[in-house]
Design goal:
- The protein is mainly α and 59 residues long.
- α1 packs across α2.
Length: 59
């Protein structure tokens, strides 16, 4: 979460709530491109998502 703090600190003010969400979305999107580590316990999390959100996943 320190990367979000850094991104939000560099932008002093936001005109709307939507602009804050856009900056956060873009920061996470840029960070995800650099992500190389596998997600721990992803298989069990995915199984839980399939149960919780039945009909929304196609495996």
């Amino acid at each position: 979460m320190t990367f979000l703090r850094k991104v939000l600190r560099n932008h002093r003010s936001f005109p709307t709530d939507e602009s804050v969400m856009k900056v956060i979305f873009l920061a996470i999107n840029n960070l995800s491109k650099k992500w190389t580590m596998p997600i721990r316990n992803w298989k069990s999390a995915l199984n839980r998502f399939v149960i919780e959100f039945e009909g929304r996943f196609s495996l």
